[in-house]
Structure formats: C-alpha cells, structure tokens
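Input.
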Amino acid sequence: MSDTFPSSTQPSAREPERRRVAHLIFNPVAGHGNAEKDLALIKELLVPHLSIRVHQTTKETNPAKLVQNALIQKPDLIIASGGDGTVSAVAGALINKQIPLGIIPRGTANAFSAALGISGIMPIRRACQIILDNHTKSVDAAYCNGTPMVLLMGIGFEVSMIEGADREKKDKWGTLAYLMAGWQALSERNHFEVEVTANGKTYPAFEAGSVMVANAAPPTSVLAHGEGEVVIDDGLLDITIATAESKVNAIATLLSLLGAAVAKTETDRPNVLHGRTRRLTIDANPPQKVVIDGEIAGTTPVEVSCISNGLLVFSPTE
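Output.
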C-alpha cells in the first residue's frame, strides 16, 4: 500500500525550491513498538521538509521489489524503516545505484544502523534528523552467492543463534532472545571442517565452530571482530574463524572478542583466526547452513565478494 504526502509551500515572489522526493519503505511488523505511532512520528518529522511517498511491506511484498518500483520514479532518496531484514533488503537493491539511503531503525537488533552510528537515544528522531542533515558517505557492500549483503555472513554459531531466536521469542524478549539462543548454542558446540580460498590460495581444512565474514558489524556481533574493528569503507571483508574445546573456553573466547570489539584491538586468543580480503570462498564438511544478514540462505559452499563504495548512506557528521 502506498500514500503520498506532498509538502506545502508558502506563496513567494520567487519560484519555490523543489522539495526532495523520498520513498519510504516501512515495515509495520518490525520490532515490538507501535507501528502506527512510529509512522505518524516519521511523517511529522519529515513531511515539512520532504515529499514522502510511503510503501508498507507485507508478507507477500518483498522490500527489494518496492525499491525497484520506486527507482522507476527517479526519487532523490530512499528510506528504510524496520529491522535489519528490511534495511538489508532495501540496501541490497540500492547497491551501485548511487541513490542515498536513509535508515530509520525500528527492529530488534538494528545492527546495520548501529554500525553506521545511527542508533541511540530516541532512534526515530535521531535517524530522521540525520536524513534531514543531508550528510552522506559511501560505504562498502557485498554479495554472498549472488545475494546482496550489507552486514555479515555466518555459519556455525551464528546459525544456531538465528534459528533459536524466532519471531515469538524476539517479540517477548527483544535482544535477549539472541543471547538466550547463543547460550544454548554454546552448550551444543557443533564443530565442522572448513576450507577457505582467498587471494588465489586455498588454505588447509581445519576445525571450526564459527565462521563470520563481515562487511559491517557493530560491537555486539562479537564473533565478527577478530581484528577488533570491522571497517565499513576499507574495500575489504573481515573473516573471523573461531573454535572452542569446551563451554568455558567458548565463553572466554566470546568475552575476549567482545573486549576486542569495544577496544578496537586485535584479540590474542590462539583459537581465533582473522584475515581481510576482497573475495573468498568457503566450503564446509559436513555442509553447513548459511546466515546472510540475519536470514537463513542456503548452505555451503559460499562465495563472498566486496563491492567497494557500493552504497551511499545518510550518516552522522564526523
């Protein structure tokens, strides 16, 4: 469903300045807030300055398709409002389009907005102000087996967390649902053999419990931070591989990676490997389910490639 909200103009002797046209892709079931109040607030904040056209997602409507339809109308900007799934789908449809993307986070984790520094106190008001400030930056994007990726790909531990935190649990517990699922995954300690090919070199297979390939990741995505910080505009993907022999060892590894993410320093754990590359392939034995930006998306093997400066986003001023 779509609505158009034209901005009013005051009579003037001069030709009124053209208002920028923004298409808002709005997910009404994201997070656990009041969607009607959220949308009303967004309109209140943006309509005086932008001509807003609202498209609400449904179970049958892919956000990427809404973006493709919007692009036909040559908008000045696209805005995504929802959780990471909505934001990722909208952002993926804008790779290499050079149409600026505004993000209004309303999900459970809001990982991409956190990585960009958009999340904070009163996130809707802050996000709208960032859009109105009109400060943009180019950041990297990626493709994983042809699927757009703006955050990260994971196998092993990340899959267990996503599968364990279903919609009902997220609605009830919020981000705690991921922590609860992660705690259960630590008890299972499912390991597999992984083989990585990067920069024309295939590395010998070795045991792993978690493999993360990140384009962007907030500190809370601890298993992506083997180097301490995932840089969103360096033209490189961060791969972090971790294993643990016991639950105690796994907890110690997670705490070490969290400390590395907060301090932005490399972890010194011997059971954590890290590297950076523009493109890589990963195979696993036995084959493993794959998570791309929080959604289960097939199984290994996977090929991931970085699209340097592939996405233009509204971001806080430095």
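The longest strand covers residues 302-314.
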